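Bench notes, bay 3.
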Amino acid sequence: METVKINENIVVGGGRLTLFGGPCMAESLELCLETAGYLKELCRELDVQYVFKASYDKANRSSGASRRGPGLAAGLEMLGAVRREFGVPVITDVHESGDVAAVAAAVDVLQIPAFLCRQTDLLVAAGASGRPVNIKKGQFMAPEDMLGAVEKVRSTGNRQVMLTERGSSFGYHNLVVDMRSLVTMRGFGVPVVFDATHSVQLPGGLGNASGGRREFVFPLARAAAAVGIDALFAEVHPRPDQAWSDGPNSLDFQTIREVLAKVRELHDLQ
């Protein structure tokens, strides 16, 4: 399996567990700093590599009236402040090919949202940036079909690709996780990530917003770690019930501590 080098200190797929963690949306600089500071210290305690995650724009909200985030310029400034303050790498979603250059200049990893995992121009632009690319498997995609997405990025000469499992559509307003997908996607020679919080989402379950069942995060994360993963993705918020996006499936600080400790323990048994 090829490893993905995030920076001089963090290599995904090299044997140590990595956490991609932070609030769904970069609601404010204060929130980003509070969350990044806590998670950096937690990962230091648990000997887990840490990459801060937050989105500057949530372009796929259920309702057009929902908050989308600070936008490109202000959002990238917040993410840059996290990098400067804590010296941690940053991953964020990119939705438009035209945004790739600006985002790649400001963060360490580009993430392709699940709904956009077949968008050729976006995947090629992300690959051409030279940054590592994390592609989320679409809720509508079979795991074996994600090889096409990997090959689109690799066509640019960029071999720094990861794939993330985040659940598959199961009827209406529900997702189910097929743990076999982790094995299938790892077979492409790329590190695999388990998105423990989006996997318990209830898409559109609240009518004009997505619901979630965060009580299932812990068992699913344990199962994924037992199957074999290289990184855990988790949306973390100090006050999830007040989060602007994905609050019902986000974890508070105490819960991510419990989840990450167990996942690292199981990961290290591989």
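Next record in the batch:
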Amino acid sequence: MISSKNKILIAGIQRGDSQVFEELFHEFYSALCAYSKLIVNRSDVAEDIVQELFFKIWNKKENLNISTSLKAYLYRSVYNNAIEYLRTEKLEKMYKEYNFREIHSEGNLQSDSDQLALVNKAIEELPDKCKDVFKLRKFEKLSHAEIAQKLDISVKTVETHIHRATVTLKDKLKNLYIIELIYILMNIL
């Protein structure tokens, strides 16, 4: 249950009350930066994550919908953003290492366009309903519920189709280097 103080702060922010926003910022900024640093292990990145969170809150203040305590919301948001940063950083590092190996290897690997063609061909070979669900999720970024509603199927059926598509694509594309596949999928999805 959300406290009355939290309700007042949220309402103030939604109204665009800069004093309320500043109060929130000053109350939580340092602690959130310290928390973020525990996750990402870099002060500059930790501060960027927290600043970005407050920037988003202020820019989306009219639509701010928090059903938990502000503190819980802020910490969960910082955690999610920090984990996303680490995932992205890991993928970038893996791709850079792959590029280094590719440049220094004697054998020529398939070009990105050739690999993209293989990925697209594999997607097109999926069963029709499975392909439709996969494309709506990956290309149009629809949620499972939105896909279910659009195709008049259950959310569980959507999840099943996405799982099947993922397993099938992994199997069909297993000859591609995993790093190449991650890079290609990041660029097309």
